[in-house]
Amino acid sequence: MSDEQMAGMPENSQPGTDALVAALGSDSEMYRSRALALLSASYCEDDRVYPAVVSGWEEHGYDEAFPDFPMVSHFPIPSGQVAGCIDLAARSAASGPLKSKRVRCAGKLLEQLVLHPVAMLKEHADAIEKAAESAKIFFRVHPERLRTRIEMSGQTLESLTQQLDSAVAELTETPEADAAWLQGRFALEALRGHHPDAIDMAAAIRLSQPLSAPNPSFWLALESLAMQPESGLEEHIAAHLHHPEEKVFTTAVEALVRAGTAEAAARLIHAISGAPSNNRTWIIRGLQRIRAVGLAEELRKLRAESNDQKIWMMLLVAELNQLESASAIHVAGDLSRLLVYSDEITVASMFLAHQICESEELATALKAYLLRTRSRLKQDIAETKNDARRQARKQRQKLAGDAVKRYRRN
Q1: Residue range 60-75: average pLDDT?
Q2: How many helices (H) and strands (E) does the chain have?
Q3: CA–CA dist 293, 265 (Å, integer)
Q4: Which pTM value belongs to this model?
Q5: Rounded to whole angstroms, how far apart are CA atoms 317 and 288?
């Protein structure tokens, strides 16, 4: 995609969010789980997600409502729901044994809450601390760190700058100093939140040479952008997508997904060309998570040009995750030619065909795909002499069989 095309793409309005929020209330466990996974992976901040999930717990129970909930990477909690969230987490944590699903969901709730901006947590610090001390499941919640963040949010520019510089100096000498990392992270968060003109984030993530020596300023800035997005920096973040060090390019992917803009998506698309194999895989994983207007068509173009089956299938999942009705007819045609079973493609196709656009063409192609791949796997199992490969194919055959059952149920 050219720079002119990127400039012309509109900002990301998270297409499909309304449908995903609606799917959180679906009668199908699979669709509820799929919707929550996509909302979480794309860092959706929609205020409707939290009450929809709570309603799901009340209606279906913690075990059945959202089976993967404790594993979500992001869960938005509206500012007006903080007190209720703390109360729910505390009550749920006291409801049963540590390993029970409801208790584990309680741990995730409070764990996610304290990651939110300090401004919405200030007046609830005491309640959060009391809840965190009430049950072992809250072992990942650190009230003292929240107190430090709150304290720093009220400090002067000079004080915060000194603390950031001090942390960077210590980390340059002792990169493993955990306390210094936290000090630098919290000072940078406060600077960006309350004194945004005092720090040039674009300059902070610019590398003039390889990371052959500790560079805490760079790491603090890049990781900060992966947790606290800032518009207008997509080009500077994307400059690291081809970096040879995995931690650098994976954090850059995360920062672009967190940004969630059309330009972030376009930068990921642009970076696929010429990317080393591992970088390319992570870039496409990022494209599977970000949702942006016009992205489905760009992914379709890339797929048409790809000769790598693994990349082609990953791009197909990325397009399906855009939740665009226009994709249904194209995906139906692609499924008719696909011989390899993929559970991810199956679930994504079912979601699009039945929950988003009710496409008869895609539903028909999906059914034929499931039957065809089951038959192909059965034949491969009979012909394969290697035990490990035979077991792998049997596992895929079971997944395909389960998918057929899910298809008939849903």
Answers
A1: 95
A2: 23, 0
A3: 9
A4: 0.89
A5: 6
